[in-house]
Amino acid sequence: MTTFKEEHEKFIAGHNGTSYLEVAMLTSISCLACFLRDLFFISSIASYVRPKLLAEFLLLIFPNILSVSLLENYLAIFILLIFSVIAIFCFLHWRSIIALKNHLHNVNLDEQKKFITYFRSVVIVCTAIAILAVDFPVFPRRFAKTETFGFGGMDIGVGLFVVANAIVSPEARNKYKEKAFLLHHIKSTIFSCLPLIFLGVARLVTVKSIEYHEHVTEYGVHWNFFFTLAALKILLTALYWIVSVNKSTVIAFIVLILHQSLLSNGFSSYIIIGFNNDGTREGLIDANREGIYSLPGYIAIYMFGVQLGRFFFQAQKNLAEWLQVTKAIAVQFILFTLALFVTHSFVEPASRRLANASFVFWVMSVSCLMILQLLLADIFITFITSQHWKRKSSSLLQAQQTKRGAKEICILKAVNYNSLFIFLLANIMTGLVNMAVTTHRILDKMAIFILTSYMLSLCYISLILYNQNFSLKLT
């Protein structure tokens, strides 16, 4: 007789994924929702809406829930609908749009670079939604993690998480401090990784002790995402002690070529079916072969991300220069996408399990696409806002500047403020929901209600922590 654990594991395993285009549409919905949110809150309509948290939730979070549930077969129509609403809001600012070309040299982005905050937060929000939604039948199986090869909506999450950390890393911000002794450097890094290692051990012990469902071919028997993050930090510390940060792209390509060469010469087969060609696992390393041997791929992703982040932390004097940055990102997007389709078609299909070349190029392609959309939106909103403020009377301007001194309600800023803790909390809440109800037998309407309540709770907690300036740093 099949146990509940076995039944659930069968429900979440054995999938082949979807297309590159569909994953790109899913991530674009998240980015367009950010743009729509900003347009709404700089419009006069926003002053009449209460409570603002609910409005922001409906604009930012709910579209992401709908896109992986009820509207999963209508993504293109959904994108056109969001575009239409954005166009209406843009029409309200037609005077500013006309003046855009002539005043690009007079305005600059905020030092905090909102588009980076949004990218990092969107990754966390979408991951939080997916890790619970995948347990419900309403979540399309093609968006779940693939068993071996393919483009699964959830496959890209861990890669985007690595990019989100890389683009704001000390290496990307030119704040990397070289230390004379490697051992001292690694010792310091291991100490900073202790919270991640502790979380990894805690998750392992919890999952095994309560017999919680798990997907062994994701990372292995004992390995998990927290161990991957800790191992990456330690390995990259050693690597950046040896090579210059300026050579991140070159080293990323070298690591990726060596990694793919091993995979193409029999290592892929070993990772997928083991030494005995029957999927068995012998010994600690063999038991966790997916988690351990995928690390070179994630190192390449991180180093590509560092190089991408270095674009953002160079001194840009105005919006015109930021538009030049968008061109550079667009070129990178095209190059990574071409590399993806060449390697996917002629070398080896994309595989999160192997973190092969196709997977790395896929992650970087989608990352560039998302950042490009968010940066263009940030440039537009910054300019519109600057023109809007110029037309205000001095007394009203002073009053609104005072108001802006307080923290605005912004779910994405709050999530970014405690990103890893929010991710951890999402995992805990997902576990509690799964222990409370038989998720893979829940009706669609109830699943949407649970998902909405879960995300509302998560957003509310993140806002409370943010408004109290309470940041829980886990690394």
TrEMBL record:
Pathway: Glycolipid biosynthesis; glycosylphosphatidylinositol-anchor biosynthesis
One GO term (biological process): GPI anchor biosynthetic process
Transmembrane regions listed in the UniProt entry: 20-41, 53-71, 77-94, 115-136, 148-168, 180-201, 221-243, 250-273, 293-313, 325-347, 359-384, 414-434, 446-466
Pfam families xrefs: GWT1
Single GO molecular function: glucosaminyl-phosphatidylinositol O-acyltransferase activity
Enzyme type, top EC level: transferase
Membrane-related topology note: Multi-pass membrane protein
Main localization of the protein described in the UniProt heading: endoplasmic reticulum
Alphabetic keyword roster: Acyltransferase, Endoplasmic reticulum, GPI-anchor biosynthesis, Membrane, Transferase, Transmembrane, Transmembrane helix
GO CC annotation: endoplasmic reticulum membrane
Subcellular location: Endoplasmic reticulum membrane; Membrane
EC number(s) from the headed UniProt entry: 2.3.-.-
Residues in coiled coil: none
Family membership noted in the UniProt record: Belongs to the PIGW family.
Free-text function comment from the UniProt entry: A acetyltransferase, which acetylates the inositol ring of phosphatidylinositol during biosynthesis of GPI-anchor.
PANTHER family: PHOSPHATIDYLINOSITOL-GLYCAN BIOSYNTHESIS CLASS W PROTEIN (PTHR20661)
Protein name as catalogued: Phosphatidylinositol-glycan biosynthesis class W protein
